Amino acid sequence: MSNRDWLEGLLLEGIKFRLDNPKRILKRLDKKPYKKFKSIHVAGSNGKGSLCVQLSAAATASGLKTGLFTSPHLVTVEERVRINGRPIEPDDFDRLLGAVRKAASAEERIPTYFEATFLVAMLAFREAKVDRAIFETGMGGKLDATRLVDADLCILTTVSLEHTEYLGDTLAEIATNKVAIHRPGTTFIALKPEDAEVRRVIEEKCGEDLSWWPNERNSSTWMDYGLIVKHISRKKGWSETSGECNWPGRSPGYGEGWVDGVLTRLSAAHNAESLERDFSEAFPDSVVLLGMSKKANLRATMEPVVSELRSTNSFPKVVFTEPQTGRSPAVPVEQLCEMMEKMGVAHIPTAVKKDPRKAFEIAGQMAREEGHQLLVIGSVYLIGDLLKYVVERDGLNLWDELTVH
User: Fold this and answer.
1) Which pairing describes strands 318-321 and 187-191: parallel, antiparallel, or unpaired?
2) Which residues have a Cβ under 8 Å from the Cβ of 151 and sit 6 or more positions away?
3) CA dist 292 to 74, 300, 307, 321, Å?
4) Are residues 382 and 294 part of one domain?
5) Does this model's pTM top 0.90?
């Protein structure tokens, strides 16, 4: 069995919250590889990837060799492990994955897919002798493998109802899980939440280490997190407080030229909070291409979308599709249509196409004919499907497209 086949087989392990397993494997690989570099650790329901990539860009622009670990990947697993914004090469990933597999076997431990990719990142950053590493938490925080990094700064973005089957049924329970990335004596920056109970949880956990950041919601989420990056850059003494970024589905202007003659907007919003935020930002009339991954609370997730469609004429047509990649299967287009009708938007003309590539072309043609823009939304995996399609369609270099700064 190849190392890649072994990694794919780890998907059967599902999601597991534990630190002992990856810690034992990491010890076998190297006593304390995380001591070789300092890290910034970011958790939260939304925006943590956007914050991480902007931090990485600022650090790299300041002359630091920077490691960046994010998840999930959109097209290929190597993009979870970037050095100076560029994914590590497939041969390097395979070699390091082989070392992880060997160590796991020696310890008689079976990691999850996420744990294995995290361990590859730790080895890659140590080998590259990075000056600074940025780690995005996978899910939660308390028992997430990334909790093993040696962080000198921790950041919590937003806390919303998500992954309730794993993290808890209330905002307070979810906040308790996420705020557990705090290390005593280490600065902890948190977006100040509106919910009083969530604030209490964070304050009790972090004490004097806590630094609240105002959750003002300015012109865009991307710019909001850019302000945090500027603040951190100054505190760290970096020479640059920002850097050029191309973060698929999240940075401004990304993918706007993917459809000839149609201004295209891509959104990786995938839960109620992020969907509401994106739909609250004003933009011209747009055809909507919507594809969702299955969720425990799909109806609640869809509510911001349906509410906006009911209350405005800005979205004259909706095309439903099904993301082809990702941990969870896609919501069938038939189910999306039925749900939308029951929630009161049967008056909007719709089209369905399971294949996201064909759906993208159909939606783009609709927008072109009617002089509208195109809004692609609902799943980060849908963005990945379309990125892969555009790379193949236009003969682009995938690694160049996946280099984020």
Assistant:
1) unpaired
2) 38, 39, 40, 41, 135, 181, 183, 186
3) 15, 13, 17, 8
4) yes
5) yes
